[in-house]
Amino acid sequence: MKRYDFDEIIDRKRTNCVKYDGYQDIYGADNLIPLWVADMDFRTPDFVFEAIEKRMKHPVLGYFIHSEGFYQSIINWMQRRHQWTIEKDWIYFAPGIVPGLSFLVQAFAAPGDKVLVQTPVYHPFYYVVENQGRQIVRNSLKLVDDHFEMDYTHLEDCLRQGVKMMILCNPHNPLGRCWTKEELKKVGELCLKYHCLLISDEIHSDLIMPGYKHTPMASISEEISQNTITCMAPSKTFNIAGLSTSEIIISNAELRKQFEKLMYDGIHIFVGNIFGEVALEACYTEGDEWLSQLLQYLKGNVDFIQQYIKDNIPEIKTFRHEATYLPWLDFSALGMSHQQLFRLLVDKAQLALNDGAIFGEEGLNHFRINVACPRVTLEKAMEQLKLTFRSQSCISAR
């Protein structure tokens, strides 16, 4: 069995990389450890490059159609990894999950319609709704001990007011929840009850920590499946976001017709780039062992930062982390304003973390950290974090 090296240090600077070359305008500094945007500092798997190189040997890169292998790799992956049986006709291409969500809002919600999100949540959820003239309805998640849960009473109150669409984050970003089948079933049934179309963003569905299991919303029952559109991609899992290739899965025939009218007749999007196609097929065909090793490494990184913070900066609250490589940190107990925390992290700790406020008002005094990097990078980041907050009067030296 091949062993993959996730400790390898790869220099990504000066490659037009958003994570390393694009943070200066946001943070106002150019000497930070970038632990923000959600891509990984690990080498993209060798089987992806091999598939691309094989296709590059053909001398023509013209128009193409999706191959049977493209569709079958998705079908097989969903069955093998998630015990979810899907069909070829259900699968549509999208050039990324966020564009896909934007298309779905256009297709199934009219201007002025209400669209529900559960906050705090991945910030483009707001953009694809509000920037297209639809109304955001917020259903805040609630903290219970060391994790977050859904407020079903408030959710039902919101749906009762005529919400046309709900965009679910499953697993949840940035709160790191892997929703259980029972939790999802309640949501699905409420959406059915109030005739609310359910869009399930499951881009992090393969990034589940050991001991937890992802449940595709559309796999729960036939009734829920007919009212659910699922968005997935190999981009986060296999570090191929630059290839802009995602899949949208729709089992309901009438919803498919409506979506096709927008995508084919309106926007005229059929396929993406040919290298995205071959990379997706390679990932979903050959990626099991690589993913298994990745998840073990990511779990080690999550455990490392949580233990380090507990031992050295216990004023920073961590949460039970079940999915994604993006833990959520609460700095509220440090007694500083959000802006003070932001500036300390940038100017003193020299860290670029995601500003929690972009995820919603619940994110004030919170920050999201990307742990998908070599352990030595996290060790340096944690040491800088410790030294910064030890120097503040709110923390005594330990």
Structural class: alpha/beta
Share of helix among residues? 40-55%
CATH superfamily of the largest domain: Type I PLP-dependent aspartate aminotransferase-like (Major domain)
- Mean of all residue-level pLDDT scores: 96
Low-confidence stretches: none
Give the name of the CATH architecture of the largest domain: 3-Layer(aba) Sandwich
State the distance separating the first and last CA atoms. 44 Å
Individual helix count: 15
CATH topology of the largest domain, which one? Aspartate Aminotransferase, domain 2
Give Rg in angstroms: 21 Å
Shape: globular
Order of helices and strands: HHEHHEHEHEEEHEHEHEHEHHHEHEEH
CATH structural class of the largest domain: Alpha Beta
Number of domains: 2
Strand order of the largest sheet: 2-10-9-8-7-3-4
Report the sheet-strand fraction.
5-15%
β-strand number: 13
Largest sheet: 7 strands, mixed
Give a quick set of tags describing it:
398 residues, 13 strands, Aspartate Aminotransferase, domain 1, 15 helices, 2 domains, Aspartate Aminotransferase, domain 2, alpha/beta, seven-stranded mixed beta sheet
